[in-house]
Specification:
Order of helices and strands: HHHHHHHHHH
Largest sheet: none
Oligomer: single chain
Number of helices: 10
Radius of gyration: 20 Å
Strand content: under 5%
Shape: elongated
């Protein structure tokens, strides 16, 4: 299959569900609208900056996990339409991660370079979050079909496996940020673990299928 065919197939897979992408797009914007509305009404609690950081960061992590779930949903449950949402979910995850970091850098730290540098080099929970953000940036920048063509599908796919590293770092960042009740970080870590295990199983199955196919072709040609 050509690169063009690979990149076009998700659109075909979800082509009959014309309502799905607009619905997901709207739902993905809902958390931001909620934060802005609560800010306008002064309903972000006693620590509005921390509340904003928490909500934006959690939304970024949830959307990242949702994007990681798309391939297992297709392979395990046969939900081919899920692949058509993967790019959008990933980009929204980066969008919210960017808002999360911008709120920290601009609102919380007032763009004080030394304070930010000290945080991203000395505080583990900020180091992990910043590293996750940095890993997501090139993935968002190369999310287009043109980027696949430019990099080549194999290199593009290898690069985008960094999303799993970003997911682990983001979940670790979430765990460290929460000081008492770790139920939500534990759930996020569990979901991520299941998704990682699913990808390993799928990769092993695909490697086995390719090996069997190669053996059959070798037997036919001998």
């Amino acid at each position: 299959m050509s690169v063009a065919a690979r990149t076009a197939s998700p659109a075909r897979a979800g082509g009959r569900r014309t309502w799905l992408k607009p619905a997901v797009f709207t739902a993905a914007l809902a958390p931001l609208a909620s934060v802005l509305l609560d800010a306008a009404r002064h309903q972000l609690g006693a620590e509005p900056v921390n509340e904003t950081l928490n909500r934006l960061g959690l939304t970024a992590l949830v959307l990242l996990l949702a994007s990681l779930a798309c391939t297992p949903l297709r392979e395990v449950l046969g939900w081919t339409w899920a692949i058509g949402l993967r790019r959008m979910l990933g980009l929204f995850a980066f969008f919210y991660a960017s808002l999360h970091f911008a709120t920290y850098a601009i609102v919380d730290q007032g763009l004080r370079g030394r304070a930010i540098l000290a945080d991203v080099t000395k505080r583990p929970f900020i180091i992990s979050g910043f590293a996750a953000f940095l890993l997501l940036a090139p993935l968002a920048a190369t999310s287009t079909a043109a980027a696949v063509q430019r990099l080549g599908f194999r290199r593009w796919k290898l690069l985008h496996r960094l999303v799993y590293v970003a997911g682990v770092l983001a979940a670790f960042h979430f765990w460290l940020r929460v000081k008492s009740d770790h139920r939500e970080p534990a759930i996020a870590a569990l979901v991520l673990g299941v998704l990682l295990l699913a990808r390993v199983v799928l990769a092993v199955r695909e490697a086995r299928r390719r090996r069997v196919t190669a053996e059959r072709e070798a037997a036919r040609s001998s």
